[in-house]
Here is the input.
Amino acid sequence: MATDNPDAPTTEEEKPLPFTAKTRIVPVSAPIRWIHMGAEDMRKAPLVSLTYGLGMTLLSVLIAYCAWQFGTLGLYLGMASGFLLIGPVMALGLYSFSCQIEQGRKPVMGYCMREGGSHMKDILIFSFVLLIVFMIWARAATALNIFFPDNADYSIMDLALFLGVGTAIGAVFSTVVFTASAFSLPMIMDRKTDAITAVITSVNAVLRNRKAMLVWAIIIVSFVAVGFATFFIGFIVVLPLIGHATWHAYRETVDASDWPENDKY
Here is the structure.
């Protein structure tokens, strides 16, 4: 029987939400399945996927051009590694496309924008944190010049030291951001949750699936390397593929059913 008291708590309000979403343990081979499922999403929606991939690629080219024109080699390497930091935010639209396909919809850009706007606050908070991390890493990359050989007769070992230090620092930044963002943004897109809960869930899921997530990280880094090796052309395909696959990684690894779904438009 309904109550006449508008201040009376509802059943949903009485149920306390957990500190973090439940996490499933996935096999080491799971990332391969995620890639196959991502490729299937691309097959179902090639136009929006490749259009989005083209837009992300052009933005990547712009970032790399600015780093090369106005920065140093260290900054350029920093931007290349930083690409792994801002990638999750750039892929938000792809998560939405995969979600639409999952619901039996035909993916459209407009739906993606409306859906993203409904939880823009948490996305902006997370994006702001990533931006700070990215700027710190870019600053650290410029400091790498002290390790760059300052004479024309430098040896392979001198260059290896420079590249080794840069790679180690980039790996630290990338690992931290990968752990925090692997599942957090898809969860924000999927459920009515806050950025902190989503990040904690992501960290927990990564730590509980270390081997599978190591394989997933290697696949992502390999795809990014292919993109750079093909002078960014490969990004048009691999970026949408990674984005779609990340959505399926989230759905298979995280059980966020305790939180209500976001409004569907």
Remarks:
- The beta strands are 22-23, 254-255.
